[in-house]
Amino acid sequence: MKIDKSKPIWRQIVREIKERISRGEIEHDVPTVRALAEELSVNPNTVARAYRELEREGIVESWVGRGTWVKQKSSSKLKEKMINDVVDEFVGSLVSMGLSKKEIKKLVRQIDDRN
Amino acid sequence: MIEIKNLVKRYDDVCAVNDISLNIEDGSFVGLVGPNGSGKTTLLKLIFGFCRPTEGEIKIDGRAPGIELKSKAAFYPENDSTYHWMKAGDLIKWYSHFFSDWNKEKEKELIDFFQIPLHRYVEHLSKGLRIRLKLVLTLSRDAKTFLLDEPLSGIDPASRKNIMTGILKAYREDQTFIFSTHIVSEAEMLFERTIFMKEGNIIIDGQSDALREKYGKSMDQIFKEELYG
After folding, report:
1. Among B189, B216, B217, whose Cβ lies nearest the Cβ of A42?
2. Domain B2-225 is of which CATH architecture?
3. How many Cβ pairs closer than 8 A exist between chain A and B?
């Protein structure tokens, strides 16, 4: 993971953990705060803040002394949501460039020919 | 908790610290960032009680810096150690006897991580190794507060990450760290809060992630653009 130091780091960690869950790299146990802090060379409190946010969003659960783990069904729901987010962003930026929905649909149909 | 109120320190005509007020909560990792001569070292020395304020006051857990504080706080000085005639291992052993909060496990972890050659004389160590040795002496304690004055100065860019990782390994979340530096880029991800100083004043002070949100810049960019721009 490459951290962009000009954007809030805790948000980037939230996103990274969501991506790892949706890619199946994290199936159950989320790395400990310490382990992830050392892996990313960031302050452990920043990681802890990201984990609190993931817990608030209902993606992970934690228990003092037992660590943090992914809630059941989180991974498939997350993947679905992340795909939707990417599509929204993609369509949004094309719309802001002045394309109509019809033109975007046409573009998407052409993907097959391009690859 | 460290409470600083209207702190002024003048040397002859020069105002090194110019009317600073700030609070530092227990358990925060604070970056004290500014160019050389901005007052960072003076501020750290005032907090530790190495020198006395011209005006204003400092309170640590409700009391002025005194003997009691020195048993609870560790200071990393930028100046090189004077114990050049000792072997590194002997120096660590001798130094450890001064402190009741010495943590033997931490000492071992840091010696291994920084690869300190214990059998060699301090005067024969490279500058980088002497800095690492000084960090072992400072960080092996279970102190409540750590004041680190420019631990990255004298370290070549390729080794800065190694120093930061060593500090991260030693740091526990209930300890307060105040870390002064003019080398920001390699250190900023450890700073929960960053205080920018210029000419004895605090120019910008905030939670690092909140400052990233507000300015859309890294602490290093703020340091270069807002302080010099």
Report:
1. B189
2. 3-Layer(aba) Sandwich (3.40)
3. 54
